[in-house]
Amino acid sequence: MRKVKYLVGLLAIIGAAYADEQSIQATNVIVESDVSMDDSPAPDAVEQTDYISKNSFVQNPYIGMPSGGDTRNISESDYALDSPARKLFGNGTWNVFGAASYVDQNNANNYGYAANIFGQTGQIAGFSVGGLLTVANPFFSKQWNPSNPDDQAQGLSIAQQVTPQELFVEYQYDNMVQANAGWIGINNSPWLTYYQNNALNMVTYQGASVNVNPGGGWLLTGLAFNGAQLLGETGFSNQTMYNSTWDNGTGTGNIGTEGSSSTFAMGANWASDDQLLNVRLWGYKFTNYADMAYADTEIKLPVNTNTNFTLGFQGAIQGSDGDGNILNSNGYGNSVRSNMIGTELGFHYDIFDLQLGYNNIWGPSSGYEAGGLVSPYTYQYATDPLYTTGWIQGMVERSSGQAYKIAPSLSLLEGNLVISPSYQYYATSLIPSSSEYDLQISYSLPQVKGLTLFGGYGYLTNGDENGNSVYQAQVMASYLY
Fold first, then answer.
1. Which residues contact 392 (CB under 8 A, 6 or more apart)?
2. Per-residue pLDDT tens over the stretch 399-414
3. pTM given for the model
4. With contact defined as beta carbons under 8 Å apart, do 146 and 108 qualify?
């Protein structure tokens, strides 16, 4: 009860802000996805209304993205007239995704390829079933890729992986309640990784989630899970990214095999009818790691149909979970106590966008990373919602301190070509300050719908404990049908 009161109290006093976009996620399940590299924005009022519907299929990581095939959109009246067999097999959805990628990580060559098959039945009495099968790197992976884990690209799965990543039962009631249980994706929670558009597959969880749309622009979410399947893994376990032996210079890459037995979270998203204001409030219990309260908001200030400004704020408070915190018991500070605030200014004009971000993270010098944030399921992936996170890493991977980000982007050829450079400066308090320079380019070929080419390059100064710079370059081709 004390922990519940703690989370509620944190949510009551925390500032709010809008999440920086770090990867394509399926919160935008209705609109066709763009090629942003950023983490999913808070759903607007229309999306929250449509998030729970017979056509939303929120467990499909590819729903709404350009594809060679189309998902059938069925009206409520047509659905009611269909036979049970038609409802089950004709009103569902499926996608096949194939991708191949090459990553050069500090002169280490990494190659990966995969095919993912998603399928979900239509509903009978509100129930449906579905799953996603991954077949990744079935041949030649050991011959092509480095054996040293330090040389293996974290964001590219190079391991042989033939396994279901999702296998779930879904129940939906009257576009108001949606529940999923089993091996599931979680696409609307800011501090959990799901799908990234430059990865071969995704991170999924063993548990359950419930979404409720009570009206008035609200979407309420509760979730619980007791295991995760991280990128490249062939099963679900209690391990988190802090259990990984991979470490990009942060000094916290390997704490042994003690994982997290469970995670619980509750969230509330709200958007105004005119979609000019949205707010997210989330509370997390990462068992044996940390308790977190997080909030963000975005205000849109339109000038005309082609021009608008956005102003965002975010904040978090974090404390230890349990008496024997895993990070502290492995020598990383004597407590988990952290505070975070951030602000972001955005500008959009026609084909040009600009985002300016700032974050400040602080806490006791004797705590984990001198007051740094703990994030078991975004750490090392750089998928957290901080406004200043770069392509390679961000302040979650560094330590407490301040960070700044400048990110312009150009959308050309009717939005099919997006060029996104960015600069991040991490003024960290525990480890040397560093700068990150990124360039990402994505091109969706209009002549072959579903075919996308991606290229990225990131360079980080003071990337390791010896002050050496690190870089990562990636090219990827993918096709979705």
1. 248, 382, 436, 438, 458, 460, 463, 470, 472
2. 999 999 999 999 999 9
3. 0.86
4. yes
